[in-house]
Design a protein that fits this description.
Strand 18 and strand 19 form a beta hairpin. This protein has 338 residues and is mostly beta strands. The chain is built from no helices and 30 strands.
Amino acid sequence: MTDFDPGESASIVSVTDRVRPLALGMGVSSVHFLGERACFVGAEENVAVVDADGDISQVAVHGGAILCSVSDGKRIVTGGDDGKVNALSAKGEVTTLATDAKRRWIDSVALHPDGAFAWSAGKTAFVRSGKAEEKSFDAPSTVGGLAFAPKGLRLAVAHYNGVTLWFPNMAAKPEFLEWAGSHLAVTFSPDNKFLVTAMHEPALHGWRLADNRHMRMSGYPGRVRSMSWSAGGKGLATSGADTVIVWPFASKDGPMGKEPAMLAPLQTKVTVVACHPKNDILACGYGDGTVLMVRLEDGAEILVRRNVGTPVAALAWNAKGTLLAFSAEDGDGGLLEL
């Protein structure tokens, strides 16, 4: 395929001429917004900060590979193979939040709305909140992913054969949600009623937290590496197939007994998804470099970037939903103002 082929929807709307191209000059793994600035997290050492005029500045945040990143819109917290948890502020200042005593790789990081943060190294998860002392929890196996619940200080620690729900500030024994297999990325629904993991096998697994009832979410041809909740948490959009799979979460049963929506099919896999913060729209990137915007209601598509090679690695909206930033793995990026 030499150019974008929308199949039957040949009249697809294109906004490619409105995209500000960005030559980031480095491999990119993710992107976050700090205010109106798009911050592209590199695979090694640097974050590329792009201002409103499209000017790019490189900020060194680690002394080696950047293994994970998360943002709350005020700061970006990263983990590196240098054993450090660092934070990049909106002013461009880098501070070290924690250093692993054994200089182990920092495999995952998580941020809580009240400023608490968590990280993992090997089998151990750590939490620090406000002026409280650092707390740690040893999982039964290597930590695959971390996520804070939207309410209360509760941390989900994904690992082999399930997820542990840990309350760092309580003496209560952590709650264990069991399901065979290796659990990696983990996410709470915005209403705090469901927990979903992306597994090492091509599947998701979910629990309804009121009664820990299982939700099998399988049928993917590939591993799910990207998940994003729609505005209001009514749906969970995911990568892992040649369409965007959107699981319904509007009812008390979530996706149990329901089929997911399948949007924006292409002859290549979806690599990353990002739902709009306010409207029922999502952006999705593909293995051939295509970027689309898709309306959840009817699947209508808008072409943002043509298929020009390497897989799309990073997608993010600013908090207002007026800017969309994206980049392919090789650092060929763009910024779209809506």
